[in-house]
TrEMBL record:
Family note: Belongs to the bacterial ribosomal protein bS1 family.
Organism annotation: Seohaeicola nanhaiensis
PANTHER family attached to this UniProt entry: 30S RIBOSOMAL PROTEIN S1 (PTHR10724), SMALL RIBOSOMAL SUBUNIT PROTEIN BS1C (PTHR10724:SF7)
Protein name: 30S ribosomal protein S1
Keyword set, alphabetical order: Repeat, Ribonucleoprotein, Ribosomal protein, RNA-binding
């Protein structure tokens, strides 16, 4: 009985030991899924590497997982590699492994340390995505935003593709698998170091050679060997430069002078004209006041035109100095860009580097010429250019105008009525009344054509004169008479000394009547006439000659004696 029990217990103990050993071997030797294990390449076939990961397990990995971006896979039988065990056994009895995931796990560990220590990492750009590029960081894929590729926008990233270079990790999230890197941060850091070194060796006033790197509307950026300086368009030449491309080309080597260095911002201002002789040093001697020179119109503005006298020396012809006759006209209608013109030097301000020029001064004042060729009284003919409420403007030789005032339109009509007889464009004749050169005014007269008829007619007539007139019309208020072509009107009260004889109807058209001149009005061109005044004057004269108020003679006696004396 005892023997049977012993024989029965032996197999049980052996089984337990075997099971324990088996479990122990599984626990010790079987790798855990989701971990990185070492394996050995035993063969390469059909684009895959067959890898023995031990524990009598083999797996397959595509060869492309062993290649860096842009490179061929470098692997052969016998190589030892680390792979990621995704599954111990699949349906075919093989281990499911991945070299790429192993590299990723390894890379993440490495990148997290670099990120924590703010260290640079090495990678290669291998693809383009929306908003940037993809970068392989030794197994982990990162995103490189377009703004972080370079310090300046990159138009062609082709030369950067597949090139191993350093990057700075800006952000990473292992759980989400996101990594953002920057190439620009590396460049700026190295650039800042380089700039500091180059700037440290530069001094203001120093002359250096540089290469034109970029051209803009306001200037050009010149590379001084790792640091850029701005060459402003106004510092390229003493003359006016409309655009830097007129004198510079990208890639051209130029000699420049360091004008200013800002130690805080590391900005460098450069100049080219400072290396040339300043033409303004000789302006005063070469261009004395009043001298006339030929120049070229370089720019036209609303207030005038700039004329280049020589490269680097420009003067302004103000709009008021452009023409004698064209006043409120844009300068562009008088001169054109690049036109060669003669100008006179009016003023020089060396401190402000300004020259005031005159264009009209090179031509004679047309009012002076007109005054010389058309003295007062000269008859002229011209077109009615404009009609205003105070007169007519007549076009005259020399592209100038003369004015006929309302009062100079007619002797017989009011100016307001006479001006209605004229239309713009009419050709009219007039005589020159006055020329005021300083005020640039010419006064004309139409009514004085043929002379002053009134003055000629009444030349010998004065107040108190007795003249003979001809009755031309009979009206209720008096009679109209004419003397040497000049019309006048005698009122009813002036027709006779006797009230009973103050009747216009006692006169007939064509009658000759002796009248006394009571007034000569040159402005209204009227003669004041009176029959009554003549009769009173004659009576007074008769009394003085043939009697007195106390002689006792009657008026009839006196007048009778006077009449006899006349006979």
């Amino acid at each position: 009985m005892k023997k049977e029990n012993q024989s029965h217990m032996a197999p049980n103990n052996a089984m337990e030991e075997f099971e324990a050993l088996l479990n122990e071997s599984f626990e010790m030797d079987t790798p855990q899924e989701g971990s990185v294990v070492k394996g050995k390449v035993i063969a390469i076939e059909a684009g895959q590497a067959i890898i023995d990961v031990g524990y009598k397990m083999e797996g397959r990995v595509d060869l492309k997982e062993f290649a860096n971006p842009g490179e061929q896979p470098n692997i052969k039988p016998g190589d030892e590699v680390e792979v990621y065990l995704r599954q111990v056994e699949n349906a075919r009895g093989e281990a499911v492994i991945s070299r790429e995931m192993a590299r990723r796990e390894e890379a993440w560990d490495r990148l997290e340390k670099a990120y924590a220590n703010e260290e640079r990492v090495e990678g290669a750009i291998f693809g383009r995505v929306k908003g940037g590029f993809t970068v392989d960081l030794g197994g982990a894929v990162a995103f490189l935003p377009g703004s972080q590729v370079d310090v300046r926008p990159v138009r062609d990233a082709g030369p950067l593709m597949g090139l191993k270079q350093p990057f700075q990790v800006l952000k990473m999230d292992r759980r989400r698998g996101n990594i953002v890197v920057s190439r620009r941060a590396i460049l700026e850091e190295s650039r800042a170091e380089q700039r500091a070194e180059v700037i440290g060796n530069l001094t203001e006033g120093q002359t250096v050679d540089g290469v034109v790197k970029n051209i803009t509307e306001y200037g050009a950026f010149v590379d001084l060997g790792g640091v850029d300086g701005l060459l402003h368009v106004t510092d390229m030449a003493w003359r006016r430069v409309n655009h830097p491309s007129e004198i510079l080309q990208i890639g051209e080597t130029v000699k420049v002078q360091v004008i200013k260095i800002n130690k805080e911002t590391h900005r460098i201002s450069l100049g080219m004209k400072q290396l040339q002789e300043d033409p303004w040093d000789l302006v005063g001697a070469k261009y004395p006041l009043g001298s006339v020179h030929q120049g070229r119109v370089t720019n036209i503005t609303d207030y005038g035109a700039f004329v280049e006298l020589e490269p680097g020396v420009e003067g302004l012809v103000h709009v008021s100095e452009m023409s004698w006759t064209k006043k409120n006209v844009h300068p562009g209608k008088i001169v054109s860009t690049s036109q060669e013109v003669d100008v006179m030097v009016l003023e020089i301000d060396g401190a402000k580097r300004r020259v005031s020029l005159g264009l009209k001064q090179t031509m004679r004042n047309p009012w002076e010429v007109f005054a010389e060729t058309h003295p007062e009284g000269t008859e002229v003919e011209g077109e009615v250019k404009n009609i205003t409420e105070f007169g007519l403007f007549i076009g005259l030789p020399g592209d100038i105008d003369g004015m006929v005032h309302l009062s100079d339109l007619s002797w017989d009509e009011r100016g307001e009525d006479a001006i209605q007889n004229y239309r713009k464009g009419d050709m009219v004749k007039a005589v020159v009344s006055e020329v005021d050169i300083d005020k640039e005014r010419i006064s004309l007269s139409i009514k004085n054509l043929g002379g002053d008829k009134f003055a000629e007619a009444v030349g010998g007539v004065k107040r108190g004169s007795i003249i003979t007139v001809t009755v031309t019309a009979i009206e209720d208020g008096g009679i109209e008479v004419e003397y040497e072509g000049m019309k006048s009107f005698i009122r009813r009260s002036d027709l006779s000394r006797d009230r009973s004889e103050q009747r216009p109807e006692r006169f007939s058209k064509g009658d000759k009547v002796d009248v006394r001149v009571t007034n000569v009005d040159s402005k209204t061109r009227r003669l004041g006439l009176s029959i009554k005044a003549r009769e009173i004057a004659e009576e007074k004269e008769a009394v003085e000659q043939y009697g007195s108020s106390d002689s006792g003679a009657s008026l009839g006696d006196i007048l009778g004696a006077a009449l006899k004396g006349d006979r």
